[in-house]
Structure prediction request, 127 residues.
Amino acid sequence: MSDDRLDHFITENGLTFAGRHLILDLWEAKGIDDLERVEQAMREAVRIAGATLLHIHLHHFSPNGGVSGVAVLAESHISIHTWPECGYAALDIFMCGDAQPMKTIPVFRRAFETDQSQITEHKRGVV
Prediction:
């Protein structure tokens, strides 16, 4: 592979891939029915990861108050789906290039006041 590529693939420890895709499950999460809180957490996560926010779209469901949405990034996306009645939030965090998706984990734990989480990482587009 050429070093002058413009596709923002990552090369790390001899492996070249498109980006990191984190699957984050949060349990015992608080405030996951609060649209403003979810949006602020997403904005902070984008900032901390060094990503570029293009657009956020969130939808608030009735009657349970769940939130689904996405932050579209130049580097890919962060999506969220919440089940406030269960205290559960499912997030997908996919970023390429120099963005650092692992830095978003403490942001979401802090924003939703939980340390009950599970993280899975998948390297996308392995060459």
Q: What stands out?
A: Strands lie at 10-12, 15-17, 19-27, 53-60, 67-73, 76-83, 88-96, 116-124. The chain has one domain: 10-124. The first helix runs from residue 35 to 49. Residues 56 and 71 are 4 Å apart (CA to CA).
